[in-house]
Amino acid sequence: CAAGAVVQERALPDIAVYDHVAVQVSRREGFDTHETALQNAAWRDGLCASTRERLEDGRRITDSGIASAYSIRTNLIEETRALMQDADAVITPTMHCTAPKLAERAELMSSGVPLLVRFANCIGIPSITIPSGVGDDRLPFGLCLNGRNGKDHDLLKLAELVAVELSRDPA
Predict the structure, then answer these.
(1) Containing H/E element for 128?
(2) How does DSSP assign the chain, residue by residue?
(3) What pTM did the predictor assign?
(4) Chunked mean pLDDT (size 10), the chain, 171 residues
């Protein structure tokens, strides 16, 4: 490309594993953080149903279950670090489709759409999504750039370069 980047296809570890671990960790840690507040009926009742449900899901994750999730996450961090050893970023679509229409959002978001983004959250690497175009349905889609740990500034510079390249007139 004009920016001088080299693009190579790489395979991530099974993305569903990142998703499972991210859900287990976030729900258990969410429950642990809010356990006392959940005992207050007024506070609990002030939460939307989906938030209450996620916090209650966290209550059901056992100590051995969260220990297993942390262990798997450690392995995913190492696998991803090795994958990115000679790469500045891993680029994925933000979603496997264009942005959902408002009426479709809840169904799509609960069906695993964020899988392509969640892996960065799971292992604590910086991530940024940039607009990349518009689909046939005239709804936007994006590219998610995921950088190396501690290289947030480098990722922001790369995102700026990619955004400029994507905005160029192809003619």
Answers:
(1) strand 127-134
(2) -TT-------PPS-HHHHHHHHHHHHHHHHHHHHHHHHTSHHHHHTS-HHHHHHHHHHHTS-HHHHHHHHHHHHHHHHHHHHHTTT-SEEEEESSSSSPPPHHHHHHHHHTTTTHHHHHHHHHT--EEEEEEEE-TTS-EEEEEEEE-TT-HHHHHHHHHHHHHHHHS---
(3) 0.76
(4) 67 82 92 95 92 92 97 92 86 75 62 66 89 82 88 92 82 61
